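Sanity check. The docking grid for S-adenosylmethionine depends on where the pocket ends up, so I'm generating a full predicted complex first rather than guessing from homology. Inputs follow.
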Amino acid sequence: MADLGNPKNTIAVLQKYQFNFQKKYGQNFLIDTHVLEKIIAASEIGPDDFVLEIGPGIGTMTQYLCETAREAAAVEIDRNLIPVLEDTLSAYKNVEIIQADILKLDIADLIRRKNHGKPIKVVANLPYYITTPIVMGLLEGGLPIQSITIMVQKEVAERMQAKAGGKDYGALSLAVQYYAKAEIVANVPPNCFMPRPKVGSAVIRLTRHAAPPVHTEDEALMFRIIRASFNQRRKTLVNGIANAGIFPFTKEQIQEGISKLGVSANIRGEKLTLEQFAVLTNIFKAYGLGK
Ligand code: SAM
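Predicted complex below; grid placement will be based on this.
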């Protein structure tokens, strides 16, 4: 295996193809073998697994995935990287390189085609400019995905893992909690990438729950309430929901619903746990909201 985790080899490939980094695609390539090994270990990929890699870049991590998994698919948006990947991955017959925008790709169809619709694993050093839509798309879409092991901006990893009441807690924390167990497995400094990003990074593993940890009568309504509660962070939960202007309820009715939760009328959304958001949703649902 040409070890692209070695910076010298990465530079040689970049020079061979006279590759210009595209800032708009969030291109920061990994050049640290320890980090690559850590990601592979955390992903727990084995010889029976089909793995989807988002944004393979020049194929550094893809080589590891091809060595470890039964089969891989690598989805890369940048057309200029396709000939590079065809070269760096030429020794592997168990990888499909797909030129596409991951946000537009029919992932369900890919899983049907490559893994008979059975649960897959996702591994990626994500482009940071679209971390949230990618992660939410993978979690919310009802896709058969067992785990997602990703490199993200350190602050985003902390938000994903945050518990109620903390400064990092928000709509993303709650969405991640609803769908998965989140564990930060490594902190990664900028010097592990080429070029160096301006921010610190972290590897986080999201293991999908077999069933959500809380029961809600209406998942979509719960997430609308959650988003409304965090849109105006410094407002009380009552005002956050009332000011969202999307719920057909008076302030008094919202107040009444919140009081049924048994919490202070002035509570802020950031103090509510996932369980409490689920109960609140069910109270509002019983009022006839969200139809
Ligand atoms: N996996 C490589 C590595 O670790 O060295 C590259 C990681 S780099 C942070 C992110 C990669 O995602 C880049 O190759 C970039 O071109 C690609 N990318 C950016 N936006 C994308 C999108 N919407 N769909 C698919 N790939 C994308």
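Relevant for the grid: The pocket of S-adenosylmethionine is lined by residues 25-30, 54-57, 60-61, 75-78, 81, 101-103, 125, 127, 130 (CB under 6 Å).
Also worth noting: The mean pLDDT is 94.
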